[in-house]
Amino acid sequence: MIESDRELSSMVQELWDNDVNRLKPGVDYKISLQGKAGDSMAGNNDDNNDGAGYPLFTFVNENIFKKETFLAFISLLDNYESDTGEPEIVTPEEVAENHKFLDSIIHTPTMKIAHKYLVEKHLSPADDTKFKEQLYRIWFELYARRGSSRPDSSGFEHVFVGETRGRRTVIGFHNWIQLYLQEKLGHIDYKGYSVNAHSPKPDENKHILALQFSWKNGIKPKGSIFIGVSPEFEFALYTLCFLTSPNERVKVQFSFYDVEIVCHHYNQKHIGTTYPVLLKYQNPQ
User: When comparing pLDDT for 86 and 198, which is higher?
Assistant: First the structure.
């Protein structure tokens, strides 16, 4: 690995080791991978592509959702209009919820580690209030996504909530909590896991999964998500990658995983999208 990747890998490992709110696979949650999804790149949402007859999640210990960061995160998930092209109206209550979420994560071990590193690299202000302002700009400020003339999207909405384009295609939506909650409501139809010639077969006891699903009549042909991690871990990891790497793809090694973190910038000010791509397991026994 190149030097910057090695340094970033060591930071990500530290975030991982300090993600105290991470769930344990098979204990705090269980998933059922079932079959491999078919090729749905054409965007047709039919049963021929369905490699799974049952939901992805068979069990989640919802007591975990009562923890402060999870509670604050979940309160944000219903604040958005999913269709791109529809301008977002942000109410004062929603702004307050955004700030409450940032307040809840800023003092978690993972965010403290990320903040300290970013300050050392002169990429973030040392002052907590100014750091929160930077986070707000990166994640919550609205911008116009491709094909729209009005502010209709944000990094947070795209990555953690999900959006639809033309009501037929799901874009973004890289968060397991939103996936679980939407599946529980009957809005998600899990179609199976995704693999290609170079990617390892997913493992129900690991924390990264590539998958296909439909949501609100739209199809997500291939999505990739962390499963069971805390909101603060993802927020810290993606903020770190966004601010430290000029490249939109960076390879990191941590725990059992070799992962490429994709992080597309929008005008260098906001996150366009970001998600993990599993390259291989380091010791797949």
Answer: 198
